[in-house]
Amino acid sequence: MSIRYALLGFLSWKPFAGYDLKKLLSNSLSFHWSGNNNQVYGTLIQLHKDGAVSIEVLQQEKLPTRKVYTITERGLEELNAWLRSPAELPLARNDFATRLAWAFSLPDPQLLAILDGYEASVEAHLTLYRERCRRGEPAPARDLREAALWESVQEHAIGFYESEMRWLRELRLKIMRWDAPPLSPKSE
Amino acid sequence: MSIRYALLGFLSWKPFAGYDLKKLLSNSLSFHWSGNNNQVYGTLIQLHKDGAVSIEVLQQEKLPTRKVYTITERGLEELNAWLRSPAELPLARNDFATRLAWAFSLPDPQLLAILDGYEASVEAHLTLYRERCRRGEPAPARDLREAALWESVQEHAIGFYESEMRWLRELRLKIMRWDAPPLSPKSE
DNA sequence: AGATGCATGTAAATCGTTACATGATTCA
DNA sequence: TGAATCATGTAACGATTTACATGCATCT
Questions:
Q1: Which candidate from A1, A79, A88 shows the least CB-CB separation from B102?
Q2: What is the dihedral of CA A155, A159, A160, A163, to 10 degrees?
Q3: Residue of chain B whose alpha carbon sits nearest to that of A158
Q4: Separation of alpha carbons A182 and B110, rounded Å
Q5: How much is the pLDDT for A150?
């Protein structure tokens, strides 16, 4: 998809500086891009070269200069063209699932241990995001429809991690089911 | 995660040629990597340089030469070290959801149209994969446990796309709910 | 004194995809 | 004859991440 459209999207909401956009992207679950400067600043320069955004330089006292980017007609057209083009299928590729596939030689206790670790990190992530949703993330709500669309986008991200958690819980039960039986005779 | 471990994984099952691995990766939902030669062949060369695999060249009559790769002790150790390292969190980033977030200026009929297109492609993908599961994909089953683990991996991929479908259906209802009311008084 | 935030950028590396290139065989 | 399968590889590009670099202000 490329970060280009995520940036154009935010700029179609209102003007931002690169620094703002970087934070928006690295704090968002739904549009998460690593807190990298390279891509954000680089793509903004590219967008400007393509006439999709205009730049306004703001001198600030006691703070560094800000370059505020505003989307142009060309930029809006590009965003719109992208919206109407067919969406890419997401990939189910998943690091943990891949590990699981090759866990043949990993004894159950170790398998459960890495499951614990992974489950905890997904759970933490989910909690953090739910908290952030509750407090209200910076999100456009120019009308009720847009607010509803954003709500759906948030639900998508939450649903994604919830689905991961459900699968992990089933997996744990499965492993414990084949682990438990031999232990029942013991008492002490 | 990199394709390196996916390749090491398959080779820990049994020896394969690059061509086989390429097909396995491009046909798999769970480990899907695009049918690209560059990465597979390149990574195999890398693995060989690192002593993680050994090569056996098979001359065939009437068919091109095959280079069959076998995993070494070093390779098995590397795979095992990776298995015990913490798993990466998957990203919820989703092309369609990103489009939705910026669909402010897209009228509902067009929004429903792109939803249709996307839903159809997810559905098609899911059907195709279910079919492939039913027929039985090439998968290791050295014991019952490994077969069960692979089943879970398959369920993960299917669950991923099913979760996407559920979300899309809810989204459609949501859009139709705010679309429908104004139409009720009309009667031709 | 040292960490964190504001604000910009660059360098280097890795990861991934599409497309190109070759050449024999087999199937329609 | 033309397409598909087998089998290897390379070139070029694009996407993404990590880390480096600067400099002032504020908070602990």
A1: A79
A2: 180
A3: B92
A4: 59
A5: 96
